[in-house]
Amino acid sequence: MSAFERHPGLARVLTATLHGIEGRRVRVEADVASSLPGFSLVGLPSAALRESRERVGAALRNAGFSWPEGRITVSLAPADLRKDGAAMDLAIAVALLLASGQLSRPPGERLRRTLWVGELALDGALRPPRGTLALALDAAALGFDRMVVPAAAVDELLDGLVGESGIEVVGIDHLRAVRPLVARFDRLVGAGPRRSRRPARDPRTAIRRLGEVRGQVRAKRALVIAAAGGHGLLMQGPPGCGKTMLGRRLVDLLPDLDAAMQRTCHRIRSSRGLAGTEVHRPPLRAPHHSVSSVGLIGGGRPVQPGEITLAHGGVLLLDEIPEFGRDRLDRLREPLTDGRIEIVRAGEHFVLPADFQLVATANPCPCGWSGSHVDRCRCPVNAIERHRRRLSGPLRDRIDLWVDMDREPAESLVSSDTENDAPVRGWVEAVAVVRRDRTVEPVVEEEARHFAALIADRRGLSARALKRSLRVAWTIARLEGQHAVRRSDLAEAFTYRPAS
To answer: Rg of the Cα trace of the chain?
Structure first.
């Protein structure tokens, strides 16, 4: 028997806090001493957590309990881990009630294996805090087999815990429900994870949505290649040619996320306090060009995921990418290569997932009409060059597909669409098959490899650009049902790669 069980003025309750998007176990230790009244909260709490004294005090009174008399010390261990948010309100309240004798201590080990998560309102009601699902996904690994949460969070948890086992979820809606809950702790059986009933992706939806775009056959082809191989895509052309519309349709071509990726996306969204709907589908994030570096990449205090992490497993659409600024765009280079972002803040190290597919749009010049047959460009040559240099060379190397677009003639926009059944349907149906081969090394015959090296040397391409062009050619070959890269596949792949 521990000192917390022998000493009536001591109590320990377990909770968790977010460290990036992962949960960390926290022990809430409460001591109520017969001394002058006072309250101390120690253990590197954030400002929001320090305010829990007022929330917990009012909630205890309005739930029919009393604020303990004497000197109160609440310790959040481990002491060197920063804690943030209001998710520990419920655990602090339960620890105080146990330490002051207002709750009977449950027998056995159940209290030691129970995770308490919830934010308290002043009237004692419980609200779901940010990151509840992210903490639930780590509960078993942290040594818990039961989780007590606000009742409003139960449905989201049961959906998000699909495939997890051994976690019992108990929902309560008010602090006054804690007393009967603890009284029947050993007999309690909560809800377990339930099976997902989300409908599978219907490829006809992608065919229809892509077929709605009239003309732009080359851009559609590039979009399908990008979807099949996970390649970065940049479409540039004058205003109104359909760049953004096509970019938003890429996510329709992607297959549903597998169970592991769904759990990761649930965790990411929960850590940002976002609803977990439609997490079986790849996410689409389209931040405005005024987004800050922290908003795009992640960080802050506490560290939270940025747009590149929210796009994990899906698509990051940067509309008018030159307007984002070179300082922010160059921070995308490592995530585009590694599929993650590492953030170091005040001695703490965070690794956030960022395996996204980049789709960007751009005007070819400041006025937007360079190279168009619709209108003439009025920009000075140096202005066009400055516009182009907003994307650095290393970032340009990491974008595999470049497509120049122009406005379609008006008659093609009102004519009947005949592209839907022929190439588009075949392309879309092949995407899911080809994506399964993304990790396979391309099979390139010696003659084709020599041909690719000659083209790369002639156009001044880097070794990275050559390797990525070979991967694009491999995707094209697989879309055509071939198992080796041919010269024709390489020729098409290099048409999507601009000269250095």
So the answer is: 28
